[in-house]
Structures are given as structure tokens and as C-alpha cells.
Amino acid sequence: MAPMMVVFEVHVAPGSDPESILSAEARRETQAQVMTVDEARKVGFAGLPDAPADHEVRLIAVAKRDAAWIHRAMETSEAVGQFRMFDVD
């Protein structure tokens, strides 16, 4: 069975506002959930490592069909220092 969801682990660029990593339009159109690691744990994501103490990390959960849109947004956002993408069942 193909993964139904994709989670992006986003390391926010130093000095950037974590709220600016994804536009309001992208959030609305994809129904992406942007969370801290602690928030993600509270809604049931298990096995997440702690975020490094020296920078901000956000997790973005999105339906597989919208992953390419979010991937492009991560590549072009100045607020994103680096990111990784994971398929979730």
C-alpha cells in the first residue's frame, strides 16, 4: 500500500520566523499541518527525535498528493535552512 502522508522535517534558517516557511495559500490549499516536535508528539506522531537545541525545527504533515507542492515551497523559502521528507503510512 502506498504511503498516504508525507512529513517534512524543516530546520528553520537562523533569524527566520517559523510561521513564514509556508504561505497561507499553501497551508489552505494543501491543508498542511505545521507543528513543533512537541505538538506532533501530542497528536500521535511517535518516535520523533528531539529538535536540536541550537535551532528551530518544524514538522509539516501533508497528504501525499500535495507533497510536490510543499517540496517546491521548501526549496524556494528563504526561511528554510534545510529539510528532509519522510513517507508515513
Structural class designation? alpha+beta
Named CATH topology: Alpha-Beta Plaits
Relative helix content? 25-40%
Total number of strands: 4
Biggest sheet statistics? 4 strands, antiparallel
Q: What is the name of the CATH architecture? A: 2-Layer Sandwich
Strand content: 25-35%
Query: How are strands sequenced across the largest beta sheet?
Result: 2-3-1-4
Tell me the number of structural domains: 1
Inertia-based shape: globular
The chain-level mean pLDDT equals 91
Distance between the termini: 8 Å
Helix run count:
3
Look at the structure and give the CATH class: Alpha Beta
- Spell out the helices and strands N to C: EHEHEHE
Which stretches of 5+ consecutive residues score pLDDT under 50? Answer: none
Backbone CA Rg: 12 Å
